Amino acid sequence: MEFKDYYDTLGVKADASEAEIKAAYRKLARKYHPDKNKDAGAEEKFKAINEANEVLRDPEKRRAYDNLRAGGYRGGEQFRPPPGWGQGQNFDFGGGGGGDFSDFFESLFGRAAGGAHGQARASRGSDIQAQVQIELQTAFDGGRTRVALHDGSGNERVLEVKIPAGIQPGQVIRLSGQGHPGRGGGPSGDLLLEVQFRDDARFRLDGRNVLHVLPIAPWEAALGATVPVPTLAGTVDLRIPAGSQSGRKLRLKGRGLPGAHPGDQLVELSIRAPAAESEAQKKAYEALRDEFEGFDPRR
User: Fold this and answer.
1) CA separation for the pair 285, 290 (Å, rounded)
2) How far is the C-alpha of 260 from the C-alpha of 112, rounded, in Å?
3) Rounded distance between C-alpha atoms, residue 169 and residue 203, angstroms
4) 3-state DSSP call for residue 269?
5) Distance CA 202, CA 199 (A)
6) How many CA atoms lie within 13 A of 173 on its CB side?
7) Residue 135: CB partners within 8 Å, gap ≥ 6?
8) Residue 253 CB: number of other CB atoms within 10 A?
9) CA-to-CA distance for 18 and 38, rounded, in angstroms?
10) For the chain, give me the number of helices (H) and strands (E)?
11) What is the pLDDT of residues 77-86, one digit of tens each?
12) Of 26, 50, 184, 237, which alpha carbon lies 20 to 30 A from 32's?
């Protein structure tokens, strides 16, 4: 069998920290997950990534692997475990990973210590990483959404997922026991859903704050006005101070995403001038020009 370089598989250095290994695994798992990547070889790549993570995320397995690798073994070279390998070692499979490991892996870690028949140790199934897209309004209100998952055989299962109010993009929802089945009677892994927001025509998100661009008429900006403004909690009346300019931002406190420190809604004013479509309207613009002779908006 061939020696596997797990560091090379995850694209990290041999002295990579636990956080670096975790980040590399998550990035590659998202890229090659069979539910998202239908390219030839993607599923095998995904299995190799899971196997590398199973070893490098576990301090005991990583330490044993590093000691072995220090003997000069390199990826792709023919390999046979050294005499006495594994004696006195009891590797733990209860914390994650599992599923479709290579002969190389099982020759090092996947056999029960001292087992009379070399039976595979019970191991937890690997986690499934996926994304779920929700509306900004759902993140504000909280609620439920459905997620469809497809396995390698083309089967589909639909799960209903609870979305907590105030969740933000990039946060992960963990569904225990919804990952890949365990081996040898071990428990199933978890489903890790990374939350992403669909684009919203009314709002843009900045942390917990939401931004809304509000069109106003020139006279509303010049004279001041009270106008209706949409928020995630419904429409409210907003007072526009006299003399406002485009780009000015007004704050509606506490109208952003909920949380321990709720966000605000920022309302950015955008002055829109109506088109002069009649002679009377043209004359009105001409009178305005004459009245404000000397005004230069570019100065």
Assistant:
1) 9
2) 48
3) 14
4) strand
5) 9
6) 25
7) 197, 198, 200
8) 9
9) 29
10) 8, 11
11) 887 777 666 5
12) 184
